[in-house]
Inverse folding.
């Protein structure tokens, strides 16, 4: 009788894991569907930032983007969505189920975080957080900008914002200045 209980418990565990694995992408998919609907309604692009609770650079990027001197520039041009990935074992519950699949799908695997993607409201990828090459936005090669800190990273970040928003020169310079300060 005890053997049957062990087998039943193992079977139920396996079934539960299969169900969770099938539902995993749906959680992030639901978040993204809502985000893209809002972007269409507000005529904005979507800025997705992948982050984790342990990541100091993620916190720095989020704090800089939310700084009162420049936050309006981002919120006027983008629907910003944060997705939690790559958490430590004790904080796995903080992750957005399916977000790591999305990160990997768009070239973020092994790139580090923060990693960002910019889409139009129709879910077409406009830019990612990989370094640019000259005047080209790279979508498949290059190293992650992360939280822009060096002049080269800030320039690449500003170029991507310029290409994916209605930010004017003054606003872009203010964003660059704020990232240099932080």
């Amino acid at each position: 009788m005890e053997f049957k209980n062990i087998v039943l418990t193992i079977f139920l565990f396996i079934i539960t894991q299969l169900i969770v694995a099938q539902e995993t992408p749906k959680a992030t998919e639901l978040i993204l569907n809502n985000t893209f609907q809002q972007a269409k309604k507000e005529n904005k692009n979507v800025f997705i930032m992948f982050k984790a609770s342990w990541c100091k650079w993620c916190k720095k990027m989020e704090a800089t983007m939310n700084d009162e001197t420049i936050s309006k520039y981002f919120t006027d041009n983008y629907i910003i969505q944060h997705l939690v990935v790559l958490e430590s074992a004790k904080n796995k519950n903080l992750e957005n189920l399916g977000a790591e699949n999305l990160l990997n799908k768009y070239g973020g695997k092994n790139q580090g975080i923060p990693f960002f993607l910019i889409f139009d409201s129709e879910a077409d990828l406009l830019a990612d957080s990989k370094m640019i090459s000259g005047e080209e936005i790279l979508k498949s090669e290059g190293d992650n900008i992360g939280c822009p800190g060096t002049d080269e990273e800030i320039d690449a970040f500003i170029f991507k914002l310029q290409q994916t928003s209605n930010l004017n020169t003054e606003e872009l310079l203010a964003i660059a200045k704020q990232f240099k300060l932080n």
Q: What stands out?
A: The radius of gyration is 19 Å. The helical segments are 2-42, 56-65, 71-77, 99-105, 151-164, 169-181. Strands lie at 45-51, 78-84, 115-119, 125-128. The longest strand covers residues 45-51.
